[in-house]
Amino acid sequence: MNSDWTQCAITPAVSHDGFASLGVAVYRASTIPFENAHAYATRRERGSEGYSYGLYGTPTTRTLERKITELEQGRRTLLTPSGQAAITAAMLCLLQTGDQVLIPDTVYPPVRDFADQDLARLGIEAAYYDPTDIDALARRMGGRARLVWVESPGSTTMEVQDLPAIAALAHARGALVGCDNTWATPLNFKPLAHGADIVVEGLTKYFCGHSDVIMGSITVRDAALADRLRNFLGRQGTGVSADDCALVLRGLETMALRMSYNARVAASLIEAIRRQPEVARVLYPALPETPGHAVWRRDFQGASGVFSVVFTPDAAPHVAAALDALRIFVIGASWGGTRSLAAPMPVRAHRTVRGWEGDDLVLRLSVGIESETDLAEDIDRFFTALRREMARGQAR
Ligand SMILES: *Cc1c(COP(=O)(O)O)cnc(C)c1O
Questions:
Q1: If one looks up domain 254-395 in CATH, what number appears?
Q2: Per CATH, the architecture of 25-249 is what?
Q3: Per the count of CB atoms within 10 A, which of 68, 126, 254, 346 is most buried?
């Protein structure tokens, strides 16, 4: 055996003098080498933002955390392996047996599932509330309420919540407020500036923007709360890969451009969709008929490219078959990428406080970055197919 073997295993240090890049370097690490035994023995003193083990972050993850912290106008950000993991980590870290958590009836359905299965098993009560009724929320809040969850607008049905009023109510009772801001992103709404203590983003959606990464973030205003969350995530063994962070950092560079285009094209498609006789309602915070529209006007900077279509009772049973006519829209879950998506969503089973009055199937559309004309033609193709299916249904 000669020293070539050792040379192969050791990476030389090279000069960085004169080098700069507009891109973000991908620093992968499990092991972080220490300069001496003393530095290793005292590594905990580097604090929750220092580098001591790859799980707790590298300069790449810190760069993404910092960018999100600034956009959210928060104190610190923690990254999680999915948006769902950000929500469950925040709840598990802050709640204990005997506590109550208030959750909007319109919450992202996997969160309801988590609360009913896992929080219930831990003796934590999930109480669901009508997202548009502050008085009802006040009545639902018990003495053991520790956390009020907000998702604005709500999943699929798009009700906008009055976060400042909810935060005032929760804080008066000693409860914290967490807000899922995935639809708006910090470009269109800043929950921490409107009273939330915690804001969660599904980075999978608009931040990443290319439908190829799953990641989430938790941003807080309070450094002690950030430490609690960082330590909790470390104990859980939860971290994210530097490569995935680099992809989200790249997507984030174009997020404002993508979202402004998504919103503009969504508004023009909605104008055409609303005129179709087969459509009962379009749900979109920027439309006056969507619950909470006045709050959206007051608190949000704009809208995103995701909206939902409720069909008339005679058209709704034929929507699924008519989706086969789409050539540009892709049928699939998640959203916020470059491609436009259509997802038929059942709503009724996910509402326990206020029954859903429209047809059970609501079509959620996410506008991507394809040409506006091509998308409009695809929507026309869908409605032509829908009318054909309805006529065929009548003939039968
Ligand atoms: C998609 C989504 C999430 C979860 O994000 P993942 O990264 O897919 O787990 C959370 N909240 C809302 C509102 C979402 O739409």
A1: 3.90.1150.10
A2: 3-Layer(aba) Sandwich (3.40)
A3: 68
